[in-house]
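Structural prep section.
Before we set up the soaks we want a predicted structure of the protein with phenylalanine in place, mainly to decide which crystallisation condition to try first. Input record follows.
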Amino acid sequence: MSAFSSSPRSSWSNRWAYIMVTVGSSVGLGNIWRFPYMTGSQGGSAFVLVYLVCVLLVGIPVLMAETLIGRRGRGNPVSSMLNVSEESGRSPWWAALGWTGMIGALLILSYYSVVSGWIVNYVWKFLTGFTVLSVGEAKSGFEDLLADPLSLAFCHSVFVALTIAVVARGVVSGIERANRVLMPALFLILILLAVWGGVTGDIAGAAHFMFDFSPEKLTGDVILSALGHAFFSLSLGMGAIMAYGSYLRRETSIFTTSLWVVAAGVLVGLFAGLAIFALTFGFGIQPTEGAGLILKTLPLTFAHMPGGRIFGLFFFLLVLFAAWTSAISLLEPFVSWLTERMGWRRPLSAWVSGAFSWAVGLLVCLSFNRWENARVFGKNFFEILEFSTSCIAMPLTGLAIAVFVGWRMREAFVREEIALSPKVFALWYGVLRYFVPLAIGIVFVRESGFLGW
Ligand code: PHE
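Run finished without errors. Recording the tokens verbatim:
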């Protein structure tokens, strides 16, 4: 039994609630927006296959390690790291991992909510009868939004306010209640959309594109970007899982819940991919549209479907729900630190942390228009933020978590907390100690090498 488990702390009502909130964190723009466009531009099935392997070999072990630290430390990411490293007689400097995670999460939130603001804008467009009839119209619909800092800032603000509203209500009453409703709704809407794609679109083409493995497409680039995406899409290395794990009851199995979370996340991604590609191919649109795949192409697709306005609305609502539940988990780590460490009330903590991400997000809004030419190393502010968080902070923190749990925590504590049978333990521990640091290390070197380091 860990020394910190006696402290009073609210817990998720049950295992199901924990699985729902963690699925809520991991399933977001990463699965529904990034996964299809990466699959589209990275050769389809090869990317999907490597992504699945990486989720299994990197995602599950690190997810378990992060949850383990959170539950054993029973606090915000910083105090969890402090508690757990002190218990194993290690340096308090390991708490730095909590800090990089918490700050990185707030910075991710600042641009994540601007991108989510685009979705807010499209929900509004579809509610008010938006329709596009040509590729040109669809593209200019999105480009006009990017060129308008006021609309961007307004939609971004709406999204940040939605996120703060849930986190301010607290971990059990706010986050849990929202996720309990939103996550099953998300699954339902996705299944409907995939069925619709099957009936009207080219589902066979989509399945062929995603699952017919062609070895010649398996390049080093594909392997490494699939590994990186596995990392981002499971919310690893940002303190989010640590913060959620700290509310996990002791009797719940970390292993089983992690498997559920990963399976649900992967299924959502695959459903979203199938639905989007079936619709995309059905209407003769290229899968290689890049980051604009959803926002530039799908409105056109929906415009040509009978009842497409309703489906368009459903689709963008689904993306918005998913982004919202991820954003909540990006705000929670710092809010839990302010509440526990500084003694602030939760609503105040949520508004102050949210205001920070909101203010940085305003600069992100300007980087698409007024400040488009203000660049460092050829990158605008949005791209710099994205790079420094997802390419530097996430892989480094995740790598360090694997090293900490695999090499620095006392094995007896790890064994006790993770509570696995000896064989499964040996497998997980071995993968965490050797394979994970190596794999994440390669992603990090590759992504920094990308910029010519
Ligand atoms: N996993 C989320 C997504 O796919 C993003 C995220 C990253 C959330 C890190 C929390 C922490 O959209």
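Observations: Residues 327 and 399 are 23 Å apart (CA to CA).
Flagged for discussion at group meeting.
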